[in-house]
Amino acid sequence: MALSREVEAFIKEYVKDLGEDNAAVFAGAGASKSSGFVDWQELLRDIADEIGLKVEIEQDLIALAQFHVNQLKSTAKLSRKIIEEFSEQAEPSETHDILARLPIRTYWTTNYDTLIEDALGRAYKVPDIKHSIEQLNITRPKRDAVVYKMHGDVSLPSKAVLYKEQYEQYYKTHEPFVTALSGDLISKTFLFIGFSFTDPNLDYVLSRLHTATKRNHYCFMRREVILPGDDEELQRYKRRKQELRVDDLKRFGIQTLLIDDYAEVPLILAAIEARFLKKTVFVSGSAEDFGTWNRNEAQDFIHTLSGSLVKNNYRVVNGFGWGVGSAVINGALEMVYASPGRHSEDQLLMRPFPQFPSKGRDLKTLWEEYRQRMISLAGVAIFLFGNKRDETGQVIVANGVIREFEITLEQGRIPIPIGVTGYAAQRIWEQLAPKAKDVYRDMEWIIPMIEEICVEQANRAKLVDKIITILQHLGK
Question: Is CATH 3.40.50.450 what the domain over 278-474 is classified as, yes or no?
Fold first, then answer.
């Protein structure tokens, strides 16, 4: 899918905010619709029928809910409607899954369903759910993300914010939520997904922000649909109204990303994930023997490479391979401690392999799971050396490194073998070279650059610089 210039610029900025831990998401009803849940119009269809109104005609659905409460003198039926519609199990959509995998620590939603927290759980993250004022005062240990459900949760439908009187009093009854959202909107870059901007509660908060902050936020909006029966005057009217709506959102710092179809949203999010992952590098390798390299030379190379990755703001993932892991750690940490203001220990992700069977699973199964998860954290995998001793004491190619290369291809990551280091790295290049154009599709420029670091006569003193150059080209 070809992306517009505006979307490309947004992706670049949002990836930067992700790297700086400044990104947040606000999910509206549209974000849950693809998973089978209803939007506001569908939620209130039966409610409208009961009081003699048609949901298709009504513009103010919050007022419609209020009319129903007024007539029945009870909120019980509205609460039951929430239970009926949102208690069913539904799978998070691709949009939810991508968002959960990204390093986003703050989620806001007006939805009652559990799709966001379910997706975070599938991504092995711990969500801290806030759907009541009391929960705002409690911090869940080891949380990875906070999910603010400002209108309530399906587990407590009687407390859900549903009708107009609740919205009118929200700033009093839920003041801590308003304060928290206002703070996040000032300090973080929000991406609004599946939101119509007609929510009176959000409008209340946004109306107080356009004079307090100049921070940019983003939202997806589908281009106005022109129907076959629309005459020219109606077409112009629709386009003009959308232009005015887009311009009005700028008062709140919200930049609108116009798309032709909401099916484009997961594709754009996938592009964000791919670009972000290119800033994380998995270093695969092990070494009982360093071949044509002497030990000190090889260790210095690995040390320098790891430090240079951190220096150039990459995150490094490593499984602590024998003969390689220590040099990766030392090189990365040396750079972190040399410039603590610029770099962080978070740039080094060590994932030592388990050494004993666990919970009925053998080591082979556990190692496969570890490899899958480690490589999923990165967008690029570097392969160096890769050997071990067999039962007879002979040095052989490490099949674990070969498996990591296979997983790299399976997950659609970018492999960079440093063939000049020999063993598994060299074998990987021998496998890659004949099909390089298929593996490096749409980036054939990388093939001669990798070839330079795989030939036997490669200049070892310039290896690190060449690898960093390749990574920087990938990030453009």
Answer: yes
**Tokens (6 digits) for 123:** 């991504």
Residue range 30-80, pLDDT digits in tens: 788 777 666 667 777 888 888 888 877 777 777 888 888 888 777 777 777
Window from 176-190, 204-218, 435-449 with minimum mean pLDDT: 204-218
Q: State yes or no: is 174 an active-site residue.
A: no
Tell me: the pLDDT tens digits for 393-448? Answer: 899 999 999 999 999 999 999 999 999 999 999 999 999 999 999 999 889 999 99
Do residues 122 and 147 lie in contact, with contact meaning Cβ atoms separated by under 8 Å? no
CA–CA distance, 450 with 454 (Å, rounded to integer):
6
Can you give the three-state secondary structure of the chain, one letter per residue? CCCCHHHHHHHHHHHHHHHCCCEEEEECHHHHHCCCCCCHHHHCHHHHHHCCCCCCCCCCHHHHHHHHHHHHCCCHHHHHHHHHHHCCCCCCCHHHHHHHHCCCCEEEECCCCCHHHHHHHHCCCCEEEECCHHHHHCCCCCCCEEEEECCCCCCCHHHCCCCHHHHHCHHHHCHHHHHHHHHHHHHCEEEEECCCCCCHHHHHHHCCCCCCCCCCEEEEEECCCCCCCCCHHHHHHHHHHHHHHHHHHHHHCEEEEEECCCCHHHHHHHHHHHHHHCCEEEEEEECCCCCCCCHHHHHHHHHHHHHHHHHCCCEEEECCCCCCHHHHHHHHHHHHHHCCCCCCHHHEEECCCCCCCECCECHHHHHHHHHHHHHHCCCEEEEEECEEECCCCCEEECHHHHHHHHHHHHCCCEEEECHHHCHHHHHHHHHHHHHHHHHCCCCCCHHHHHHHCCCCCCCHHHHHHHHHHHHHHHCC
Burial of 137 (0-12, 13-18, 19+ CB in 10 A): exposed
What's the pTM value of the predicted model, to 2 decimals? Answer: 0.85
Report the 10 Å Cβ neighbour count for 112: 26
Q: Which residue shows structure tokens 């919205």?
A: 167
Decide whether 5-274 matches 278-474 in CATH topology.
yes
Given the residues 151, 217, 303, 343, the one annotated as active site: 151
d(CA 293, CA 418): 13
Architecture of domain 5-274: 3-Layer(aba) Sandwich (3.40)
Ordered by start, the domain boundaries in the chain are 5-274, 278-474
